[in-house]
Amino acid sequence: xxxxxxxRDGADHVEVLTGDVVTVATLDDIPMTPGTPVLAVIPYRQIxxxxxxxxxxxxxxECLLVRSRHTEPLSNFPPGDITxxxxxxxxxxxxxxxxxxxxxxxxxxxxxGANFVIHRTYRAGFEGDPRAAFGRLLHAEQGTYWTFxxxxxxxxxxxxxPERHVSVLDGIVMMNPISGxxxxxxxxxxxxxxxxxEIEELYMVLDEELKMMATVAEHGGQVAGPYLxxxxxxxxxxxxxxxxxxxxxxxxxxxxxxxxxVTGSPIENACRVIARHxxxxxxxxxxxxxxxxxxxxxxxxxxxxxxxxxxEITPDGxxxxxxxxxxxxxxxxxxxxxxxxxxxxxxxSALGAVPSRPAAVxxxxxxxxxxxxxxxxxxxxxxxxxxxxxxxxxxxxxLAGRHAVIVDAEDxxxxxxxxxxxxxxxxxxxxxxxxxxxxxxxxxxxxxADLVVVGPGPGDPSDLGDPKMAALHGLVTSVLAAGRPxxxxxxxxxxxxxxxxxxxxxxxxxYQGLAREIDFFGTPRRVGFYSSFSAVAARPTVATRxxxxxxxxxxxxxxxxxxxxRGFAGVQFHPESVLSRxxxxxxxxxxxxxxxxxxxxxxxx
Length: 605
What we know:
Residues 93-343 form the Chorismate-utilising enzyme C-terminal domain. With 605 residues, the chain is an alpha+beta fold. The strands form 3 sheets. The chain has an 18-stranded antiparallel beta sheet that branches. Strands 20-19-21-22-28-27-26-25 form an 8-stranded mixed beta sheet, sandwiched between helices. Strand 27 (560-565) and strand 28 form a beta hairpin. Helix 4 packs across helix 10. The N and C termini lie far apart (60 Å). The model is unreliable at 358-363 and 599-605 (pLDDT under 50).
């Protein structure tokens, strides 16, 4: 009979679930009947439900309809003997290193995104009792969110995943971005906590999961942490995000497919990059194992860890263990190759493929220096995402009651920006760039907008052969010609600047996930960048066909960090990013002047 064994972090027992398995096509098809919990095994290919690209391998979305549920002590699951034969990675170390080099050079270096996760798979023949493997994993790994065995009758998944993807309980949505990897025995953990690559990697996934929280929680996510996530062979760093939401839990799953820690950012383009460079399906790697249920009051609940550190065993005895590394601008091929070996080692040691070296980590207390280093990571982050505040505390009278339309250029940073604009008093609508392309009827497209916001997105702003870039150039041209208030962010600013006659330049080194202090029209401001292109100018003012424009120019390299003219403004950085300590203050400064002389086009009543 199909069944599942679940051990949750800190529990002294294993949950045993049995029932029937059904295969469904979409997340909305997952049955949700009070009294019948469902354990859904969600493959990576479901990302197509969001319209994102993937190599479709046909892996099914299987659901265990739980008919029976009880608990058993850990002692009922002793480690047993199993055999792995003819094991090895599908990509050699050299081949994987070449893929890493290509992604760093051709994708991150050309502005396609801030970070991307590329996987490889360890394959071997499996002989033995899967429950023995589950017992070995229970005893060999520590600090996991779930340790599990799921047998659908068509496949067996055995894993020890460290990471909650998303959960819903009592109306509170929670996510848990984890990133940064310290390999035990590889050096001093204090050096790891000071490493800029590891710090930036965690910040980037924090930003990306805040984007997701912004779509599923009413006021976005509030950030707690960072904390250490200690496991037997690895230590990670993590944040916890929480926010109140009311969506159906299946919609929460869909809007959060899939974690940036296993895909990259921005997510839509990360999926394209993954398909381009992996050129094969991911099956269940990067998907989620989701337990959907109802509480005693009839409200939906959800607990969904990420399917990483997971082995899939097929009926013919083939074992697959996929692992990936997060590639950022500081990455090296050798470092990422080593990371995949380390991530696989915990599971493979439990399964007997590599020597087992269990290490007790529970009960260790972070030293005062570790606590100080962790706490210091928040010193320069945006308090908007870290602090609670009373409703209306940030409202700007000049913005209150006005309406902004944000044009999304394939980066859901726009969802975070929307929360900031709402906090300042604006009503906000987000529209994808495809809805403003190839239309001469600008008033209809932007009906009721007091302010048009052209948002960030990946790609080369000068490539007018790209339909997105052509559409955004046409939109900005139309808005400027109509004299409508305009605010442009990152890609939006690059396009605005080019239409104002400023040249664009690709940076020698990408500004992806980088925070720094800039001179913002005479005031020092700390802001976060996610870009590979920028406008450049030699002087702080330029004459344009739309009037004089003032520029915030970096004297070191003539990069234009921001610009403002009559009725329009732009920023090259991301004021909505958690990296932009001064992001809200910048919006409070830039936006009111844009609307001072604007007459609201909204129709009364």
